[in-house]
Design a protein that fits this description.
Elements: H1 2-11, H2 25-36, E1 47-52, H3 55-62, E2 76-83, H4 88-102, H5 110-121, H6 125-150, E3 153-154, H7 162-169, E4 176-185, H8 203-206
Antiparallel strand pairs: 1-2, 2-4, 3-4
Helix pairs in contact: 1-6, 2-6, 4-5
The protein binds flavin mononucleotide.
Length: about 210
């Protein structure tokens, strides 16, 4: 098992050129289910996963993607969007879910509610954004690993204009903002990056034992 995970992580790379192959919806949904299972601080999952299939929308997004046409020329574009309304409302949504899934009356969850609300209230708006973005990137990491294990190619991307993405996708109305994006699909056989050895620092440099 360990060997297989390492093999999958060696196989994956940040794809520069995708083929025209389309990943079936079942595979995409499975990948997003795996991503939804990501850990997050307090379990609040302060982000949403957007699947952009529409060619027309992707064409519009291309204008805000620093010329990286893989946002258009790939199977699906996944947008990881962070919630911007980090306050009592999202805490209540979470507590309602705990109550429903675990069958606990919400009155019995008052201490937990107060603890989470207090933790969020103690943060400045900038700290809240940074905290939410951290959770979003954790999901991105999980997404990339699961995609690799499933044999789905991907390219995480920060090379885009978040304001442009937010406008095209109408995210302000949904209290969301684009954090990071990731086209997925199948690598093009001509993508030279597929054959390049991985650049990683040696274990002795990266892993410190105390
Ligand atoms: C958060 C993040 C943002 C990235 N942004 C881009 C990008 O905009 N365009 C791109 O081609 N690669 C992007 N990359 C890919 C990295 O350059 C790549 O992961 C790194 O060089 C390691 O190579 P590998 O993923 O192929 O093993 C990004 C990676 C991460 C994790």
């Amino acid at each position: 098992m360990t060997v297989n995970v390492i093999k999958s992580l060696q196989w994956r790379y940040a794809v520069k050129q995708f083929s025209t192959d389309v990943i079936n919806d079942g595979q995409v949904q499975a990948l997003l289910t795996a991503t939804r299972l990501s850990a997050s601080s307090f379990g609040l999952q302060p982000y949403r996963l957007l699947i952009v299939k529409s060619t027309e929308i992707r064409q519009q997004l291309l204008a805000y993607s620093m010329g990286q046409d893989k946002v258009l020329n790939s199977s699906h574009l996944i947008v990881f969007a962070t919630q911007t309304n980090l306050g009592d409302e999202i805490v209540h949504a979470y507590i309602d879910q705990v109550s429903k899934v675990r069958g606990i009356p919400s009155e019995e969850l008052q201490d937990l509610t107060d603890q989470i609300k207090g933790s969020l209230a103690a943060k400045t708006p900038q700290q809240k954004n940074a905290w939410a973005k951290n959770q979003t990137y954790l999901a991105l990491g999980n997404f990339l690993t699961c995609a690799a294990i499933m044999g789905i190619d991907a390219c995480p991307m920060e090379g885009f204009n978040a304001e442009g993405y937010d406008n095209v996708l109408g995210l302000a109305d949904k209290a969301l903002t684009t954090a990071v994006i990731c086209p997925i699909g199948t690598r093009h056989e001509d993508d030279p990056f597929a054959r390049m050895p991985k650049i990683r620092f040696d274990a002795e440099k990266m892993v410190l034992t105390f």
